[in-house]
Amino acid sequence: MSVLKYFLAGLLIMAITSCMQKESELYLFVGSYADASEPGINLYRFDVEKGTAVPVKSLSGIQDPSYLAVSQDGKFVYSVSETAVPDAKVCAYSFDKSTGTLSLMNEQKTDGSAPCYIWVDSKCRMAATANYNGGSISVFPISADGTLQPAKVYAYEGGTPGSERQAVPHLHCVYTSPDGNYLYANDLGTDRIYKYEIIASGEGLSLREGTPASFGLPAGEGPRHTVFHPNGKWAYLISELSGRVAVMNYDKGNLTPVQFIEADTLHVSGSGDIHITPDGRFLYASNRLKGDGIAIFSIDQADGQLTKAGYQLTGIHPRNFIITPNGKFLLCACRDSNVVQVYEIDKQSGLLKDTGKNIRVSKPVCLKFTNI
């Protein structure tokens, strides 16, 4: 009888330990630049308490899956193929969490060159890409089974003749407002943020040009990525060309700049991504081309404005990065170092400490979490 008790107790401890391990882990998707014959999307189990990653599976068959979007329930993954027209497309995958398997469901052309960003709404009814060389965004209705319907393309005009990087529109990011009522598109080429109202009906979601239709920024900013504060009142824009972060008040769809502060003090026009800790206290912005690293800012909780807190040097060409939901780690995709670096966040200062727990992967450029 005592032997049976010990056996059952052992089983109980194993079950509890397994449950605890699962609760501390997330799936981590890494999108990269890769030929279709090479692994382009890599999947890991990432422990958000220990900062360690374990490889699960990899997926080939798609050219340059440089940006990913995961549905809120984790059942579907959408990837751009950042190529030229007519090959540029989005692939829709179903995701089996029990096995870590991605299965291609369908794909749709973007009809816009070099899609470099993809967004999916919280209820998985619509996807949209920013087409960098296409000067457009592509909007895809999503069917109930997660598959993509053909895109509607919204193309833009403008630019500065003779400019090296702003002669034509270059769309770089598509995102929604905290209340889900508006969709924005950042145009690096024309220093504008385009605004749409999101209209919900029985047939799904559609877009209507906003009022105003766009917001202008100072010439030469080159708006790239935007993140909203957890309180929903402030938006933060990193501009690739100026290397500045714009702090903007958000009110009923409108964005009003109240502060500009340098993230790239070397002025090499290579700023990349921007994110905020879950507690809303610190903001980070990546810089490439020279002095590769992450600028660190503290956020004033009264008005949202930023104060420089520090700078963390990283590997070469840091692109997208991501912060764990518990706010403990920041993972940075360093494309040209072929590594995802794992940094521990000091919750008092916001400064970063390199854990040395690197994830080796070829040309990583996009990181996304989903629950296991």
Describe the structure.
With 372 residues, the chain is mainly beta. Helices cover 6% and strands 52% of the residues. The protein is built from one helix and 29 strands. The strands form seven sheets. Strands 24, 25, 26, 27 and 28 form a five-stranded antiparallel β-sheet that branches. The protein has a four-stranded antiparallel β-sheet with strand order 3-2-1-29. A hairpin with a 2-residue loop joins strand 18 (244-251) and strand 19. The longest helix is centred in the N-terminal third of the chain and has 22 residues, at 2-23. The radius of gyration is 21 Å and the shape is globular. It starts with a helix and ends with a strand. Mean pLDDT is 95; it is low at 11-20.
Identify the notable features of this structure and list them briefly.
four-stranded antiparallel beta sheet; single chain; 52% strand; 1 helix; 29 strands; mainly beta; five-stranded antiparallel beta sheet; globular; 372 residues
N- and C-termini, Cα separation: 37 Å
Order of helices and strands: HEEEEEEEEEEEEEEEEEEEEEEEEEEEEE
Residues in β-strands, percent: over 45%
Rounded to an integer in angstroms, the radius of gyration calculated over CA atoms is: 21 Å
Which structural class matches the secondary elements? mainly beta
Number of strands: 29
* Overall pLDDT confidence: 95
Number of helices: 1
Sum up the overall morphology in one term. globular
Major β-sheet, in short? 5 strands, antiparallel
Helix content class:
under 10%
Poorly predicted runs are 11-20
